[in-house]
Amino acid sequence: MRLEGKTAIVTGGASGFGAGIVTKFVAEGARVLIADINAEAANALAHDLGHHTTAMGVDVSKRDSVDAMAAAALKAFGHLDILVNNAGVTHLPMPMEDVTEADFDRVLAVNVKSVYLTAQALVPHMKGRKAGAILNIASTAAVSPRPRLSWYNASKGWLVTATKSMAVELAPFGVRVNALNPVAGETPLLKTFMGEDTPEMRAKFLATIPLGRFSTPADIGNAACYLCSDEASMVTGVALEVDGGRVI
């Protein structure tokens, strides 16, 4: 019960790493707003996890939607302790010059602008309480970029730099900001990262991970729980790799 009495928002919380984080947070005693563009999936997960969760359809790239999410969380919980910026998208692997402008804009809107929007909506609340933990889900792509994913890599690199800058600025207000850098895992984005999901492509990808397996939602949930708990009260501005040694 390391998060007993804590309240949290997890964006992109209905599937993949987000669902792993939500499940762990609830198991550790937190009340969680599951925010996801797929409202049906968010509601289904909330139903499975019980009364400690609430669900909401949210488009994190839109200010009105993010503001509504923040208002709903504060109305439901009274205050917010933890914000997890997990929602993310990528473009298909291809030469950088072939990525369409629409795909580029979508990657930047979901992976980058969303963090700006959630900060505007919720940082004043955390500063006012002089407490809070923000966790940004970045990627090993931020520190060990792979070819043909250039704009996705760049968006995650931005997120690591933003995390460190946010941490320095918010530290005097008692607000901690950290990031996780997962390696690709068994999530809906895996096929997109690899271009195609075949045994040969999986073997090729796994060969780059010294521990020899993909990350799981539970791996990310466990790391997120630590960084958002009081056990990590002296930890801010880190980008923790949860990658089986991928970037060594």
Helix content: 40-55%
Q: Biggest sheet, in brief?
A: 7 strands, parallel
Catalogue the unreliable spans.
Answer: none
Name the average pLDDT: 95
Strand content: 15-25%
Given the C-alpha coordinates, what overall shape results? globular
Oligomer: single chain
Can you tell me the CATH topology? Answer: Rossmann fold
Which structural class best describes the helix and strand composition? alpha/beta
What is the distance, rounded to the nearest whole angstrom, between the alpha carbons of the first and last residues?
33 Å
What is the number of helical segments per DSSP (H or I, 4+ residues)?
Answer: 8
Task: List the SSEs and their pairings.
Blueprint: E1 7-11, H1 16-27, E2 31-36, H2 39-49, E3 53-57, H3 63-77, E4 82-85, H4 101-129, E5 132-137, H5 150-170, E6 175-182, H6 190-194, H7 199-206, H8 217-228, E7 239-242
Parallel strand pairs: 1-2, 1-4, 2-3, 4-5, 5-6, 6-7
Helix pairs in contact: 1-8, 3-4, 4-5
Overall description:
Helix 1 links the parallel strand 1 and strand 2. The protein has eight helices and seven strands. Helix content is 46%, strand content 15%. The model has no long low-confidence stretch (mean pLDDT 95). It has one domain (7-242): NAD(P)-binding Rossmann-like Domain (Rossmann fold). With 248 residues, it is α/β, with parallel strands linked by helices.
